[in-house]
Amino acid sequence: MEAPTDLRLTYFNMPGRGEFIRLLFAYGNVPFEDSRITFQEWGAKKATLDLPFGQMPILETHGKTYAQSLAIARYAAKLSGLYPADPLVALEADSLIDAILETWDVYNDIVYGHDDKDTKQQKLDNVGTTTFPRLLANLEKRVKEPFFTGDKPTHADIYLFDFHQHALLEYPTLAKELATNYPKIAAIVERVHNSNELATYFKKA
To answer: What's the angle, vertex CA 149, arms to CA 143 and CA 193, rounded to 5?
Structure first.
């Protein structure tokens, strides 16, 4: 699929829901305008943006604005050659992303929730000792090697890397033991991190 030449991604100046999309575009060497808004700018700029559902990220192309991070990510994956052509392989990759997202949302709900400090820490500790390890064990079983669905990387491998960088690394012990306890998952993270496709993006970050 040929990529448009006028892609503009708008999101906060942080990883959040936008980093997965940025990584996908970068991996496929798809040119796009990476428009980042600070939290200080958000109040003033919100009224000037076309926000179909009142939130970011948004993707503008061909004079239209599109929303919802995973929908945009799937489009980015197709432009980057990372979305599987085989419907069953695509189903597997999408299901892996959904599984990671559901667990990641549990973590984010705690981080950005309104529990008192002690309750929040107790919940976060439980994520590190129970919730994340359970997810990783299930993901480990799904890896066909060298990537999730076999020889070629998909958007699921990129999402795993995003999850590792912005959630798993918050638990140093779990991250340190990743290669020992979940070697296939650790290998995917390493391959994505060391890929030539993302080298330029990491230099800019």
So the answer is: 75
Residue with tokens 């503008």: 60
Give all domains of the chain, ordered by start, each with its CATH number. Answer: 8-81 (3.40.30.10), 87-195 (1.20.1050.10)
Q: Which residues are CB-neighbours of 76 under 8 A, at least 6 positions away?
A: 21, 24, 25, 28, 30, 155
Work out the burial of residue 26: count CB atoms within 10 Å of its CB; fewer than 13 is exposed, 13-18 middle, 19 or more buried.
buried
In this structure, what DSSP letter does residue 41 have? H
| Separation between Cα atoms, residue 80 and residue 23, nearest integer Å | 10
Closest CA to 82 of 190, 164, 160: 160
Residues 116-171: tens digit of each pLDDT:
999 999 999 999 999 999 999 999 999 999 999 999 999 999 999 999 999 999 99
C-alpha triplet 118, 121, 125: angle, nearest 5°: 140
